[in-house]
Amino acid sequence: MKPEASSVDKGPGAGRPRDPRIDAAILRAAAELVVEVGYSNLSLAAVAERAGTTKTALYRRWPSKAELVHEAAFAVPPSAVTAPPGDVAGDLRAMMAGARDSFTNPVVRAALPGLIADMAGNAELTARIMERFAGLFEVMRYWVADSIGRGDARADVDPDRLVELIGGATLLGMMLRPGEDLDGDWVERTADIITHGVMV
Amino acid sequence: MKPEASSVDKGPGAGRPRDPRIDAAILRAAAELVVEVGYSNLSLAAVAERAGTTKTALYRRWPSKAELVHEAAFAVPPSAVTAPPGDVAGDLRAMMAGARDSFTNPVVRAALPGLIADMAGNAELTARIMERFAGLFEVMRYWVADSIGRGDARADVDPDRLVELIGGATLLGMMLRPGEDLDGDWVERTADIITHGVMV
Amino acid sequence: MKPEASSVDKGPGAGRPRDPRIDAAILRAAAELVVEVGYSNLSLAAVAERAGTTKTALYRRWPSKAELVHEAAFAVPPSAVTAPPGDVAGDLRAMMAGARDSFTNPVVRAALPGLIADMAGNAELTARIMERFAGLFEVMRYWVADSIGRGDARADVDPDRLVELIGGATLLGMMLRPGEDLDGDWVERTADIITHGVMV
Amino acid sequence: MKPEASSVDKGPGAGRPRDPRIDAAILRAAAELVVEVGYSNLSLAAVAERAGTTKTALYRRWPSKAELVHEAAFAVPPSAVTAPPGDVAGDLRAMMAGARDSFTNPVVRAALPGLIADMAGNAELTARIMERFAGLFEVMRYWVADSIGRGDARADVDPDRLVELIGGATLLGMMLRPGEDLDGDWVERTADIITHGVMV
DNA sequence: GCATAACCGAGACGGTACGTCCTGTCTTTTA
DNA sequence: TAAAAGACAGGACGTACCGTCTCGGTTATGC
């Protein structure tokens, strides 16, 4: 049995079904532990123990620490912008705040640096993790097209670059401030530059 | 003997002096190996072996893998902008290209994700690595103040946010493209947004 | 359901009857595999797979690896001496050759050392395996009594010791020669000593 | 560093020397544990723990459980016959008792079945273990030649078969009696048969 | 000139985590 | 009920790395 990246169904099939409580217990244990000890000090044996199960059950579900932690950290993918009204400055500030909130989540914050390290040189893992954020790019493309259509944004604004700017600044800002969070002022000042960069 | 973060001189002192060729050989070996196998698969024993020396000599010089690789990767700190004339668009494009060039260096690219992981939760290491980039923030502050003074930049542009936007977008852009580099068009499109965000 | 040591019938009973072809397939697979990979490397999952069935069916029939292999190896219990005429030297040589033939069987040879190991500290298993050889002691007692009666054997020959000498020498001789077999000369020379030890 | 079968010296060499107390502690722990839990339940991690060291140190010294236990059990090789006077019956009885004493040693008794299993199919290990008993065959050859020379033994007695008979009967006798020992009567009765088999 | 201090190589040390394997049991669907 | 499939707990395996240490032996300086 090759482990599925996530514990998805694989047809009804025969055999004893996996106990879904074990899935949940492992994810919960991984989330707790990664916050407590950090990604690199996170041992899969410790996760299994806290989840009240064994390494065997864990490896049956996830092929690596990265896949497990990735799923534990991003159980709910970050949403870009929920309310899409026509206010460029407000929307960008909301996106910025959303990115800040996603990355500031304790589990994400503890897991992200390690995940980044494991992703490097593992294109497959990178792709799987990144597809979770694919929606963000899609939403941004619609938003930019809409803003241009309304005459609020310059015609040559590249939406993919915009995602990279917002996400990258948040990522780097978080890394530069171990211990502390990104406050409202930070969001304001960063969104301000981007807003002027987008507006017509 | 506590090892010095880098192999700086510590007075004449007595005793046999360190062989500087070993310093160089270790740094070279570390740079080569981190590119070949990646940060997490980099073993200090392997570095010592390729350098033709031993772990003992290595640990005498650097206290940890992170410190060693950090020094191997950033032997020359990245310069922000060399020619500082009064062209906002040109300057920002040059800074963007400079960041791109720094992060695209094979050794940096191979080492950075792992360094980020080791930095998390190690504020001391973070500080030491970050001080290498302190000059960037300083230069940016001067550049912004100058541009504002010339009436080319808006008065409320925050230079620190600007550094985070440029560096973060470059970092994230690199991470999203394992294998490929950031081309001129990428630099152009990203710098374009920032430029409009800065200009008055 | 406790499994029976061997797959004996347990009355007609209710429910679906066991498929006897599975019994045979498992025993054949166990015999083949123990020769190929040795006792300690023999996994019950592999036996089940080669037999075209599953561990469930296997464990329903035999409670442990030792019981299964024991039955696979000693499907036919070794006979002591088939023709019982009154020739001490000839009979002992025949017994010696019989022991040699039993232990030289490839399956027995591959299985025996592991079985010995599993028997140690498991008196119940030891008893079950040993009762398969109980007939040998019985036959030997008759044979010795008969030989003494005919005046061919000394009166104080202990038949149980005789069995241990013959079996033990064969066992040890086999162990000392991994790869090769015990030839006719070996049988001759060993039987010679015992014969003189028995004869009046 | 390939582990040496036994922790023999390998020249003066460089590097930190092995701590001989660790060798001793491991052997002692292995001897104790094999008696307590049996060979198959003996885990190398448990041996290391009881010895107050780690698996690493253990694997540095012995390549396998068999090699370690073999050395722990046969720290002193069994001597064949110490007093070699010219009494065939007495000498053989002494040899028999010596074999009995060797195999009855608690450590040997606990270790032997498992060792036998591991030896099977590992000719190299078999050879290494057997060479420890090579002296026995040598001594027996001298003893037989001497006895023949004195006219006490028949000329065609094969000394190697004699070793196999004595050792084999003891081995098998021990295996057939889990829990109990081989008593003086057993030695007497078995030696009696062999003595008559040898004497002229 | 010779002691001292720090270097160098080699490699063992305690410790920890890894990912795999196997055993014997249990739980499910299907026959 | 049995059969097939496969998950489950538990635990050993042998390997790899880390960062420290203990050696014997080698340079430099500095008294």
TrEMBL record, chains A, B, C, D:
Residue ranges of every copy of the HTH tetR-type domain listed in the record: 20-80
Residues that span the membrane, as ranges: none
Residue span of region Disordered: 1-20
Family annotation (Pfam families): TetR_C_11, TetR_N
Entry annotated with the keyword Cytoplasm: no
Signal peptide: none
InterPro entries named in the record: Homeodomain-like_sf (IPR009057), HTH-type_TetR-like_transc_reg (IPR050109), HTH_TetR (IPR001647), Tet_transcr_reg_TetR-rel_C_sf (IPR036271), TetR_C (IPR011075)
Keyword Coiled coil included in the entry's annotation: no
Protein name, entry field: TetR/AcrR family transcriptional regulator
